[in-house]
Amino acid sequence: MTTPQNPPAAPLTRLPEGKMPELRVMPAPSDANVYGDVFGGWIMAQVDVAGSLPATRRANGRVATIAVNSFLFKQPVFVGDLLSFYANIVKVGNTSITVCVEVYAERNRLQADVVKVTEAQLTYVATGPDRKPRQLPPLDSLISRD
Questions:
Q1: Fewest Cβ atoms closer than 10 Å to its Cβ: which of 11, 89, 93, 105?
Q2: Which phi and psi angles does 129 have, rounded to 5°?
Q3: Which ranges carry the HotDog ACOT-type domain (predicted)?
Q4: Is the dihedral of CA 24, 46, 115, 78 positive or negative?
Q5: Mind listing the domains of the chain with CATH numbers?
Q6: 43-82: b or e for each residue (b if 16 or more CB lie within 10 Å)?
Q7: Structural Rg of the chain based on CA atoms
Q8: What is this structure's pTM?
Q9: What is the pLDDT of residues 13-39, one digit of tens each?
């Protein structure tokens, strides 16, 4: 029988090879409860930041979060974990961009224990200076022509 102090062992994995994380951050004691478990709301905020980065690049400007389509906490996150947030666009509409975010924790970095702790899907909408939805630019306008 496990207790909150001794969560079941998570299956060990690796960070995704050949991909760069959008964000890497280590939660501080102020991001956790008195037991050292990081608040889910803090993780959600970091996921939103990580997801907004590829959405902002695709929109070539401001975006706003309009939906959290799914959010799954797979394992607890602890103070001292080094979190890596990987985000990729999974769907593009006329004004909206849907992004999948996966979060991995490196624990006990001397032994390189890695566990997937969170996965989420969020939708962003491109907005103009008036904060109203705007059309996404065509992809070819985003490609640099050197």
A1: 11
A2: -60, -25
A3: 17-130
A4: positive
A5: 23-136 (3.10.129.10)
A6: bbebbbebbbbbbeebbeebbeebeeeeeeeebbbbbbbe
A7: 17
A8: 0.86
A9: 888 898 999 999 999 999 999 998 999
